[in-house]
Known about the structure:
Helix content is about 40%, strand content about 20%. The chain is built from 4 helices and 6 strands. The model has no long low-confidence stretch (mean pLDDT about 85).
Amino acid sequence: MVNGRQKGATYERTVAKNLEAELGIKFSRILEQTREADLGDLQPEDPDFPFIIECKRYKQGSSHATPSHWTQACRAGEKAGKLPALVYKYDRLPERWRIPVEALARLRSYVPQQNEDQYSWKHAVELSFEDFCMIARELMCDASQAD
Length: 147
């Protein structure tokens, strides 16, 4: 029988390793998530990384994110003061990333966080890993230019 907690932890480590290989940023698992609600699963060592990441790995599911998983990611984003990112993978389906439309609105026209109420996180887009990494890089670049 598969241990769900172990499967989730393994997936979190895989996502962290893939992100580090692609972005050059180390990510660590948030181990306090088992004791404290709404912490997310992965946090970056670089404070300029704009997302807090929630990871979900399941045997079966549809090709879309579960609404409760997105809600969980949004709560983690609120608590961390970062944009939420949900990565999910079901067996025999490609990995997908979900981020709020607000992240796209910030590209090249940096939208300061005080205007974030303009974009509700319920409006989201789904992306591949490569697309997510490209947007994260661009947001980090835009944020450093705005400083």
